[in-house]
Amino acid sequence: MLIFVSRTLVLCYYCYAFYCFFFFFFKQKTAYEIYQCDWSSDVCSSDLAFDRAHVKQLLGHTLPIAAALIGLTTISRMSDVPLGKLEGAIIMAVFLAGSILRVMAVYQLGSQAFKFDIVFRDQQTLRQEKLYGWIRHPSYAAMMIVILAYALTTHHWLAGGVGLASAWFGFQYRIHHEEKALLEQFGEEYVGYRDKTGMWFPKMMR
Asked: What's the whole-model pTM score?
């Protein structure tokens, strides 16, 4: 069952990577998504088929995460260490917890705010409730939990650690540019929100 889930996930992420490639290179301008883009920044424009900001996001964000997932899955399948029932149950629990949190985070953010480009819709507001009232990037934190499940299947501390570090770098790269854009968009409102919430984990003193 675990092998089936793992292979299914790999297929899903390959499809996701293909979609990202198609999106980055062939996306078309729509009447709803017309934004200005500064080529010196990492805030992408949705009315351009491809630009430097997209390349930087592809290399800094997407590829490290894809490399982590593919690498961890490959090493896991090469491992000869048997997977016990308790270990399998723990890995599945970690995976399901991360997946559920990811879906909840995306749903709570809303379809207008969830996008590949770092852009803002008209009348878009800063989410500060539910999961976003505890941490600023719950969807990325949830994905790190999912990737932790992949790392656990490798039975290799070094490989698992490198995979987690690669994925963390990809998400952290995205977060860095997202937070710059959010600060420019929402100003003092975002500063106040940032001061009372953690990036990856809830703040103990709120």
From this structure: 0.75
